[in-house]
């Protein structure tokens, strides 16, 4: 006699009703990345970015055995050097109890398929201390982009630069 069948893995695009689930995944990811204090979005922000009049982001959800297990959130970027669009993976998260079941790789493969179908490429950032993620990406064939560091202007520094010069934008 055989045991019960293995749980199934379903990867699908997010729907409007999934916004609370996606918000929960984002909060869990922020907690894992030690950045919960930086989370300020609302579900309304998320709903507008996903399904508003001008959608900015897309999301795949993973369900394992019918239970929400993880998500991948991404958006299009543009390279002037390549002259085409690419995809930036903003978030990839799998709940700890579902890790080791190829769910993260399946979510990343779904985003990679989107990139391939669009004739683009796939890029993302990873925290320098997150060795498990770095090793996971390397096992999949990803390479570190040498020679680039990430910078950001935000808050007071952004406001200071924005108000420093009088610029006429037409």
Provide the helix percentage. 25-40%
What is the rounded Rg? 18 Å
Low-confidence stretches: none
CATH topology: Aminopeptidase
What is the level-2 CATH architecture name? 3-Layer(aba) Sandwich
N-to-C terminal Cα separation, in Å? 74 Å
What percent of residues are in strands?
Answer: 15-25%
What is the domain total for the residues? 1
Beta strands, count: 5
Shape: globular
Calculate the mean pLDDT score and round it.
Answer: 93
Order of helices and strands: EHHEEEHEHH
Biggest sheet layout: 5 strands, mixed
CATH homologous superfamily heading? Gcn5-related N-acetyltransferase (GNAT)
- Count up the helices: 5
Could you say which structural class the secondary elements and strand pairing correspond to? alpha+beta
Strand order of the largest sheet: 1-2-3-4-5
CATH top-level class? Alpha Beta
Jot down its keywords.
170 residues, alpha+beta, Aminopeptidase, five-stranded mixed beta sheet, 5 helices
Structure explained in plain terms:
The protein has 170 residues and is of the alpha+beta class. It has a single domain, classed as 3-Layer(aba) Sandwich (Aminopeptidase), CATH 3.40.630. The protein is 34% helix and 23% strand. The protein has five helices and five strands, in the order βααβββαβαα. A five-stranded mixed sheet has the order 1-2-3-4-5. The longest helix is centred in the middle third of the chain and has 15 residues. The protein is globular and about 75 Å long. The N and C termini lie far apart (74 Å). The model has no long low-confidence stretch (mean pLDDT 93).
């Amino acid at each position: 006699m055989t045991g019960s069948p293995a749980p199934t893995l379903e990867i699908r695009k997010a729907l409007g009703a999934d916004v609370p689930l996606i918000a929960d995944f984002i909060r869990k990811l922020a907690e894992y990345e030690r950045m919960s204090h930086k989370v300020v979005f609302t579900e309304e922000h998320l709903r507008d970015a996903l399904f508003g009049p001008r959608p900015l982001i897309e999301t795949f959800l993973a369900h394992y055995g019918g239970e929400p297990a993880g998500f991948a959130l991404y958006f299009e970027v543009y390279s002037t050097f390549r002259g085409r669009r690419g995809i930036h993976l903003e978030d990839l998260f799998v709940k700890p109890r579902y890790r080791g079941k190829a769910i993260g790789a399946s979510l990343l493969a779904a985003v990679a398929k989107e990139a391939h179908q669009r004739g683009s490429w796939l890029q993302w950032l990873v925290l320098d201390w997150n060795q498990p993620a770095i090793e996971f990406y390397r096992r999949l064939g990803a390479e570190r982009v040498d020679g680039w560091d990430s910078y950001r202007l935000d808050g007071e520094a952004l406001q200071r630069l924005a108000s420093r010069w009088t610029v006429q934008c037409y």
